[in-house]
């Protein structure tokens, strides 16, 4: 299995009614040198200015981004290129990130290469330390900038730290 750490930025709370603005992905392996970055043109007239502001982009910029169908097809190709077997989707907040990636894959390509499951890094950490009030974010090395590749890398660093320092059994 190949773990792909994903982070997305959006202009609202749900796919379809709002848009995924950008996303980043990194193959979880030492070096973290296999990454993907996509910027997607808005698919909706709806947007929440405060949510859009988190991405660091203006509405005008977003309207000039790439066609979502092209970006999602390119992401599927990248996944096939870096994964020799089943890709596993993992993120900091998989309830949020997953719903956008899954919806966009099904809507724009007809299928999701990740299948129907996702993993949550935060829940994994809470289980490993046996404390529902603990947070893994101190394990990041790359700053959390809201650029999705930076954020995915930081989360992947945390996962690699769990493998190295907490004996997490994970195949890379």
Automatic annotation (TrEMBL):
UniProt keyword annotations, A-Z: Exonuclease, Hydrolase, Nuclease
SUPFAM superfamilies: Ribonuclease H-like
GO MF annotation terms: exonuclease activity; nucleic acid binding
Claim: Nucleotide-binding is one of the keywords in the record: no
Domain of life: Bacteria
UniProt domain 3'-5' exoribonuclease Rv2179c-like: residue ranges: 3-159
InterPro entries (alphabetical): RNaseH-like_sf (IPR012337), RNaseH_sf (IPR036397), Rv2179c-like (IPR033390)
Protein name (database record): Exonuclease
